[in-house]
Predict the 3D structure of the following.
Amino acid sequence: MGNFCDIMRNFFCGTKNTNVRISLPAVCFVWQIAMIVLFGVFIRYDEEADTHWVKHKKDHNITSDIENDFYFRYPSFQDVHVMIFVGFGFLMTFLKRYSFGAVGFNFLIAAFGLQWALLMQGWFHSLDPATGKIYIGVESLINADFCCAGSLIAYGAILGKVSPVQLLVVTLFGVTLFAVEEYIILSLLHCRDAGGSMVIHAFGGYYGLAISWVLYRPNLHQSKRLNGSVYHSDVFAMIGTLFLWMFWPSFNSAITDHGDGQHRAAINTYLALASSVLTTVAISSMSQKTGKLDMVHIQNATLAGGVAMGTAAEFMITPYGSLIVGFCCGIISTFGYLFITPFLEKYLKLQDTCGIHNLHALPGMLGGFIGAIVAAAATEEVYGKEGLINTFDFEGDFANRSVLTQGGFQAAGCCVAIAFGIVGGAAVGEFKNSEHVCHVLQVPEDEEAIPPVLEYNNHMIHKHQEISESNFSVEQS
Amino acid sequence: MGNFCDIMRNFFCGTKNTNVRISLPAVCFVWQIAMIVLFGVFIRYDEEADTHWVKHKKDHNITSDIENDFYFRYPSFQDVHVMIFVGFGFLMTFLKRYSFGAVGFNFLIAAFGLQWALLMQGWFHSLDPATGKIYIGVESLINADFCCAGSLIAYGAILGKVSPVQLLVVTLFGVTLFAVEEYIILSLLHCRDAGGSMVIHAFGGYYGLAISWVLYRPNLHQSKRLNGSVYHSDVFAMIGTLFLWMFWPSFNSAITDHGDGQHRAAINTYLALASSVLTTVAISSMSQKTGKLDMVHIQNATLAGGVAMGTAAEFMITPYGSLIVGFCCGIISTFGYLFITPFLEKYLKLQDTCGIHNLHALPGMLGGFIGAIVAAAATEEVYGKEGLINTFDFEGDFANRSVLTQGGFQAAGCCVAIAFGIVGGAAVGEFKNSEHVCHVLQVPEDEEAIPPVLEYNNHMIHKHQEISESNFSVEQS
Amino acid sequence: MGNFCDIMRNFFCGTKNTNVRISLPAVCFVWQIAMIVLFGVFIRYDEEADTHWVKHKKDHNITSDIENDFYFRYPSFQDVHVMIFVGFGFLMTFLKRYSFGAVGFNFLIAAFGLQWALLMQGWFHSLDPATGKIYIGVESLINADFCCAGSLIAYGAILGKVSPVQLLVVTLFGVTLFAVEEYIILSLLHCRDAGGSMVIHAFGGYYGLAISWVLYRPNLHQSKRLNGSVYHSDVFAMIGTLFLWMFWPSFNSAITDHGDGQHRAAINTYLALASSVLTTVAISSMSQKTGKLDMVHIQNATLAGGVAMGTAAEFMITPYGSLIVGFCCGIISTFGYLFITPFLEKYLKLQDTCGIHNLHALPGMLGGFIGAIVAAAATEEVYGKEGLINTFDFEGDFANRSVLTQGGFQAAGCCVAIAFGIVGGAAVGEFKNSEHVCHVLQVPEDEEAIPPVLEYNNHMIHKHQEISESNFSVEQS
């Protein structure tokens, strides 16, 4: 067994890059152990996931197991889950040097963030004061996935610029800020935001942009040739785009009201997305001398309609209203990629690797205000008396709120989300720039120090790099 | 801001390829605006997606939100959605020069077509004469996706031969013809065709073949080396194949009757597909000197069982009957790829890029006739009295129809679908060959004029092409 | 038509590699015909998929179609189906020479196995003694997919080492053994194993390892350079990983009890998987000198938590208990890839291509024992009186079984699964080594005789190979 000793020595006594070898595992272990302890103290199954469901059914005269919330929400949950892990992950594979990093770190961030999200959202939204416990069910899982989405969006702005440990820090603060702003917007302001235009997209977008702005690296543009996409990395990215596009109706309808709420949200989102595709193609084709389409637009701007419907999808925005929203957002988002992103990079020194400003921040903000307008324009004639109460939850403390007031609060909620994103992101970015352990976590300054990209075992990579100096295109394979 | 002026000038004053730059955006914008207007006039939510659902529930004594049609059909809808966008899109990525074109234009066509489909199908099937409105719900979305499937199948025959604008024209007429033939077959002839063997596959297949036949380009075979597949474009195509194969049970069961109808359709399709795989592998291996398998067969013919079960899946075809259908169709479809496609190209001058004749047209036609036979063979003994009425909708005007008559009408329906496909396709093809604006939309005659393939931003493509002249295989990467 | 004659002569008179050309089609045809006959004799729709459902509803006072088992299980079934075909298939695409083989043969095996599984499981579990028929519904389809999973896991150990016909033999015996051990474990020992830690993963893992051990090929290590992965084959493998990871909650909850059972199993699996990701990343980063992550670990060990929760997911293991299971299994599985796989290959002459020992065999065995412990620790206080009976099915003959006894039987069940795997696998391996038709089915001894890899039509492959001798990396494209 002398073989083992050698392996173990190798394993624990490596000297190069010790920082990453220590910091990343340390953070993961400490964090995971903390999660186990906190889950032990706080988290329990809710009554629909507990073995007492049999009794609960009898007590509440529930005639069938199908009434369990699981059957209302689980199919949508799985679609959302696919969006988070495959959709967001593969959407970012378009960088030829960073396909693994995109998918792999997306995976790590989401798995890390969703545990913290269950706790944070639990403390703010569903802590039972009597027992001091958080009771979770399938809706909590969807909310945790949503919460991670905020941080994954932010990741899109800083892709390739930060180390894995920094990513985890960004996620940790991102989830925390998310839970706070969500509490303010949904509970204190009593806004409706089922698909998270404000809470997820506007917040996540501006959070990422603010971090990226603070972490500006002037020499990054020199490495642009390493940032490019290649033919098949773009086909991989289309996998991400399509799964996001197809499942967005589930995203926006996953936690809306049972029955008509989920039904209507799915229809509206479906229509807005279809409309976005056409205007994106139109603007993209117009913008190129040859009339060809730009894959970046097709991959991203086609999704803008779904982002912008996040708030209004559950309202009676009407089918043609949904088409109009998609129509406008497809145009705005594509123009964003054509003009705003280069402008931000040139004049504001703001690098936005994946263009999240155009896909999430801007359409999210628009979605928030669209929601406010649609809410303010609601009438009892269109919604019906019960429908109005049901849709806007005008119950309890909010029973006497008018739709106009609701519209005002929706707009206020959108501003809160943006403010949280910008201030929070700037703070997190500053904290990182100045942190004590800067030699560990500092932004890498040169190519050599590029953060540990996910790589293979077999070290074939070195052969690639050798070849790639003489023959550019081989590297892509 | 002088920078902006330059950009804007560049943007609007390009001179090369102005036609495509103008025609594609113009069509997209005009179309999308027309859709918004028509949706505004005609389309409303149905009672299950409207806020009046709360009231509707009370009025109809519905005890639970789970009775909303959304919960019966939404999981199947999402599966169908994946088939349309990822399944059809990636199945066509096998061409190494056309992976983007396949996925991207598939995306455009489907997003374009589904809006028109909602209107056309609405006018024919669900226009409320009292209000003049069309009421849509989740079943309408599934039907719109189905309707697009017809045009996407046709796209498979003309892949790489037509410009995007022509594709949109093909889709526009395809959806229109689809709605008419569907109305004749399902409403006037009162056929059953839940999975659309006749309505979708036979129609779509022959529609595409007729267009391709009229648009024959003699010099296309010279560009065959550009048409080939490469290793990883074939792996991408397997993504399409597998998602189609896995979700076909959802496709055939998505709009069948609640309860046993959906259940039985899923089981039958699952079995037919499994059986197809084995016979496809058998014939494919026999056909190669080395016994190796041909990826084209595995990618396509394995799906023939699902196509052929489109009509009969909801009937009591019995599990072994499903296996027999899959058995035969796997063989027939593979033989089609081996003998019929080369024969059609050589003697009938009919180019069928993706082999849709073997995957859709032929199995679809067979599926229609299998459905007719199974319907004619139905007995009260097997179905039960209520089951027979329920399965074939022998109600109202059709209460006295016998199963034999039903079988006859099913066969007639299949002929109608084929006739619509061939005549409609030939007409659309002729229209294009002779259309006034021929210099814009004409079939490109040489490599340079190849229709705007989706391409990247970063112009790396030029480097590729340079290299590819000296080193064949690099081009594929 | 002289052309046809030539084609037909070519088709039936090829002389090279006749064995594969004959044996594979022969097996497929004979098998599929046998299936049709056996299905005709034995298999019928169950009362929920039969047209008599209308009557059944009335007779049993079922008020709504939504009570049909289809709506409880179909979304989970589709997720499981994706795991079997895309998940397992793409997880094995990491070998650059074998991407097609992995996806294509996975497809063949599963389609072949699921038909036999429906029969075998039907005979053992649901044969109606009165009619001699097996009645199938959506739960049968899920079970058939599960049953194939066992053989697909085994395929992971022998990937690239056996011919397609041998694979079918392995699957045939695998499914048969599976049905027997499942009958012993679930029916005779009355264990609970909804997600199949024991029945699927421990059995499948040891079955594959035993076959691989018997079929040891000393010269295989020389072809290691052909076994390696390349950048984008690893991205393809991530598609498999992510779909397995995302849908594992559906896998473990697909056939658990309606209501709380499915709900709780999904939550527990979700948490265990998230926890696995963090510890896998930690160990993987620690193990590399540069702190980089090893894709093999990310692709595989992140899934260990799901495997290990297969038995306990439906119990009241508590959320933090699930995190602990994931925590430990992520560590153990990653250590397995680092130390156990090389150890097995070096000292036990056991080649394990995909490392199934670390992903399936070991975590599956652990999962079985974890299930035993959790079952033994169950109390009426935690579960409730009805909940306890409901969860462990303490009814009929087993009404008086205590939780301690149940725990003991669970542990016994796990041992049975392992024993079946090892003994069965060794027997199948020996049978193959010694079989009469050895010159047909023998393990190929050299590169030339590599089993028929799925290949393309257009013979471009030869150009590749030529080039690949001078330029290593081009081959990967």
Strands of chain B lie at 43-45, 127-128, 133-136. The mean pLDDT of chain B is 83. Chain B touches chain A through 88 residues (CB under 8 Å). The CA atoms of residues 272 and 326 of chain B lie 4 Å apart.
